[in-house]
C-alpha cells in the first residue's frame, strides 16, 4: 500500500470504507458480535480490496492507520475487540518510522 491516505487533503473512497466499517462495528447494535463471529462475512459486501479487509480482520492497527483509518476509531476498535494494550502500541510503533518518513 503505497498511498498514505492520512496524509492526503481529501481521503479516498477506500479510506472512507475503512472508517465506516470501524464505526459501524462499534456503534451499531449487534454489529460487534457479527464482526467477532465472522469478520470476513461481516465485510463481504463492503467495497474494499481483500488485502484491506484482512488488515481490519487481523486488527493491524498500524497498517490501518497508514491506510487512512481515523486514530480515534482505531482506538475504539482496539478496545472493542479487547486487544491488549501492548499489542495496540506495538502495532503503532512498528509503523512509526514509516509514517514519519512517508
Question: What's the SSE blueprint?
Answer:
Elements: H1 13-27, H2 31-37, H3 39-42, H4 50-57, H5 61-67, H6 71-80, H7 85-94, H8 96-101
Describe this structure in words.
The chain has 102 residues and is mainly alpha-helical. The chain has a single domain (12-101), classed as Orthogonal Bundle (Protocatechuate 4,5-dioxygenase, Chain A), CATH 1.10.700.10. It is built from 8 helices and no strands. Helix 1 packs across helix 2. The longest helix has 15 residues, at 13-27. It is globular, with a radius of gyration of 13 Å. 25% of the residues are buried.
What keywords describe this structure?
102 residues, mainly alpha, Protocatechuate 4,5-dioxygenase, Chain A, 66% helix
Tell the overall outline.
globular
Structural class of the secondary elements? mainly alpha
Beta-strand percent range = under 5%
Oligomer classification: single chain
Give a brief description.
The protein has helices at 13-27, 31-37, 39-42, 50-57, 61-67, 71-80, 85-94, 96-101. By secondary structure, it is mainly α. The chain has one domain: Protocatechuate 4,5-dioxygenase, Chain A (Orthogonal Bundle), CATH 1.10.700.
Amino acid at each position: 500500500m503505497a498511498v498514505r491516505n492520512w496524509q492526503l487533503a481529501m481521503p479516498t473512497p477506500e479510506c472512507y470504507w475503512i472508517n465506516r466499517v470501524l464505526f459501524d462495528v462499534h456503534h451499531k447494535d449487534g454489529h460487534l458480535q457479527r464482526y467477532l463471529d465472522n469478520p470476513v462475512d461481516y465485510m463481504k459486501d463492503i467495497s474494499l480490496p481483500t488485502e484491506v479487509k484482512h488488515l481490519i480482520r487481523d486488527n493491524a492497527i498500524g497498517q490501518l492507520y497508514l491506510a487512512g483509518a481515523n486514530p480515534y476509531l482505531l482506538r475504539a476498535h482496539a478496545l472493542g475487540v479487547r486487544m491488549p494494550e501492548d499489542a495496540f502500541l506495538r502495532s503503532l510503533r512498528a509503523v512509526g518510522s514509516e509514517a514519519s518518513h512517508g
